[in-house]
């Protein structure tokens, strides 16, 4: 039994299957032999653009940003804090259309990608190892990716969301 906990915070209104997100992220953590707590936040383009500029110097929207927890106090009986993943579903949707895949498939890849970054993987320096690991994980968790679903809502003005 995994000692991981995943919290989903949805400021986008575009992701309807929060329980499916939790199940997929927990399965990725288990596949990687990692335990701990992780926050997955869904935000609009304005917020992801601000974060991307602040932390990466790129004043443009992106699909996912990962923030590993550098060091945290581990209290007895509590899981390590692994970090936070911030995802913009509007960008994920745009990328899914560009790639010719479903929103669920693109969101699944985005979640796996974000978790691997939180756990220390870096596709810019690992000579393709991270991409290969993403493919392996996604192949083994296809059934969980199918459960990811967009919300019926999501048409709200993203600038009105935090």
Provide tags for this entry:
162 residues; alpha/beta; Collagenase (Catalytic Domain); four-stranded mixed beta sheet; 43% helix; disordered C terminus
Describe it for me?
The structure is a single chain. The protein is of the alpha/beta class. It has a single domain, classed as Metalloproteases ("zincins"), catalytic domain (Collagenase (Catalytic Domain)). The chain is 43% helix and 15% strand. It has a four-stranded mixed sheet with strand order 1-2-4-3, sandwiched between helices. Helix 1 crosses helix 4 and helix 4 crosses helix 5. The longest helix has 16 residues. The C terminus is likely disordered.
Structural class: alpha/beta
**What profile does the largest beta sheet have?**
4 strands, mixed
Uncertain stretches: 152-162
CATH topology: Collagenase (Catalytic Domain)
The number of helical elements comes to 6
Average pLDDT level = 85
How many domains make up the coordinates?
A: 1
Distance between the termini: 35 Å
The CATH class turns out to be Alpha Beta
Question: How many beta-strand runs?
Answer: 4
What's the helix and strand layout?
Blueprint: E1 5-10, H1 18-31, E2 37-42, H2 45-56, E3 64-68, E4 81-87, H3 89-99, H4 103-118, H5 129-140, H6 142-146
Parallel strand pairs: 1-2, 2-4
Antiparallel strand pairs: 3-4
Helix pairs in contact: 1-4, 3-4, 4-5
In brief, what are we looking at here?
Helix content is 43%, strand content 15%. The chain contains six helices and four strands, in the order βαβαββαααα. The protein has a four-stranded mixed β-sheet with strand order 1-2-4-3, sandwiched between helices.
């Amino acid at each position: 039994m995994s000692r991981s906990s995943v919290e989903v915070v949805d400021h986008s209104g575009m992701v309807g299957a929060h329980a499916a997100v939790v199940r997929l992220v927990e399965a990725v953590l288990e596949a990687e032999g990692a335990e701990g707590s992780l926050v997955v936040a869904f935000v609009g383009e304005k917020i992801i653009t601000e974060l991307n500029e602040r932390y990466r110097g790129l004043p443009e929207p992106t699909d996912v940003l990962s923030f590993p927890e550098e060091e945290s106090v581990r209290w007895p009986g509590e899981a390590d804090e692994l970090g936070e993943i911030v995802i913009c579903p509007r960008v994920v949707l745009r990328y899914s259309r560009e790639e010719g895949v479903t929103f669920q498939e693109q969101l699944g890849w985005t979640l796996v990608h974000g978790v691997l970054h939180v756990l220390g993987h870096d596709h810019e320096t690992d000579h393709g190892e991270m991409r290969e690991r993403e493919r392996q994980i996604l192949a083994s968790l296809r059934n969980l990716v199918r459960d990811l679903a967009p919300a019926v809502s999501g048409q709200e003005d993203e600038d009105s969301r935090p």
